[in-house]
Amino acid sequence: MADDKKSDWDEVHRQALEEYERDYERERHNINDAYEDLKFRRGRLEDQGPSSTVCGGIGRKSAFKIIARS
Asked: Is residue 19 part of a domain?
């Protein structure tokens, strides 16, 4: 009887791990995007994008505005 309970729990554990891995893989892209959003909101220049994009509009017409904060 004890072996039956252990084997049942082993199967439950195996299924839970499979579901976790499947769900994590499905959400991994959203998790990575969320971390990128948090870094962007942190406000550091290096988190705002490539320097050519962030500073590319200086001295010429650009499709975006550069806001200087001091």
From this structure: yes
Neighbours of 56 (CB within 10 A): 15
Question: Which amino acid is present at 30?
Answer: N
Mean pLDDT of 46-60: 59
- Is residue 62 a part of any domain in this protein? no
pLDDT above 80 for 27: yes
Q: Where are the alpha helices (DSSP H) in the chain?
A: 2-42, 51-54
pTM over 0.85: no
Return the residue matching tokens 């290096």.
46
**Rounded to an integer, what distance in angstroms lies between the CA atom of residue 46 and that of residue 39?**
9
